[in-house]
Amino acid sequence: xxxxxxxxxxxxxxxxxxxxxxxxxxxxxxxxxxxxxxxxxxxxxxxxxxxxxxxxxxxxxxxxxxxxxxxxxxxxxxxxxxxxxxxxxxxxxxxxxxxxxxxxxxxxxxxxxxxxxxxxxxxxxxxxxxxxxxxxxxxxxxxxxxxxxxxxxxxxxxxxxxxxxxxxxxxxxxxxxxxxxxxxxxxxxxxxxxxxxxxxxxxxxxxxxxxxxxxxxxxxxxxxxxxxxxxxxxxxxxxxxxxxxxxxxxxxxxxxxxxxxxxxxxxxxxxxxxxxxxxxxxxxxxxxxxxxxxxxxxxxxxxxxxxxxxxxxxxxxxxxxxxxxxxxxxxxxxxxxxxxxxxxxxxxxxxxxxxxxxxxxxxxxxxxxxxxxxxxxxxxxxxxxxxxxxxxxxxxxxxxxxxxxxxxxxxxxxxx
Length: 416
Known about the structure:
By secondary structure, the protein is an all-alpha fold. 80% of the residues lie in helices and 0% in strands. Helix 8 (225-246) packs antiparallel against helix 14 and helix 10 runs antiparallel to helix 11. It is globular and about 55 Å long.
């Protein structure tokens, strides 16, 4: 592909923006649209909270499977075609969710959709390693996930408008989510390239990377204790975080009695604050290190969950929603940046795939447990207490991490 000098210079930034769109599709629309649609969907299908949690569990269980396979698939067929095709198929799966009358079939379709979207998200986190110099990867990863907040901020009022149109509008909402994912897949096909060499660039940190792409996770160094330390942080965070966000809108609207309109407004506020979270926290981890950065992020998230459990005034939800928004998209980019520090360009996709796989397991467990607790106690208070405690545990696991030295980061840039 022949590009002008100016286009070549800014193509890495374009790739980061494309990675952000992949994150919007895979996380912003694929996962965080669910809490907005849930109240209408639950009422229309007469679901219990446990059953509602199982629908989300299906999606995140699918992401577990997709994350494990993503690195191998991207390495075999390349980022561009792999992600664009999986986004197209995932969009169809989410549109099918709106057309299916049976909750059991919806769970199956959501599982397939989650598996396909996981490939796009894992692929997105390979972009900074290939296109961005090592000292700026935390920021680049953060920019991508910050765009998830943009997706939440835009999609929440749009979905609310759709949902207010008629009683069965939750189906229309799923159609809209699916179509948006398909459009993003088309954008990826047009603009994304597999490696910098495809546009005539040869950054020094990619000189030893195979043109076929990142390393398959099945060739990754699973024996390293550091790998499993990072996986443990990600898994425990995923359980606590998914418990906190899954019923966020339902908690404010139903249990706290503030109504669906106010609940959706708070959720959109979380998304708006989350626009800067990935960038800010990625920059924070570049400055203070991945270890302390993760500890501060997870502690803040724990405070937001425990605060929401103790105070149910609408103003309190905005305060603790602000704290949640500040760290909402922070853990995945910092973990991905840590992977680049420790394992180099080829190893990061294996690590991200493994973390996302176990994170998918954690986010499959979290909503089910949260729904079961809500049904058993007839309250969301204990859901948020348990979520906060789990996030505190994750914070202290992160505190035991060691930071890569500056010299190790430079070595990782040239690692084969």
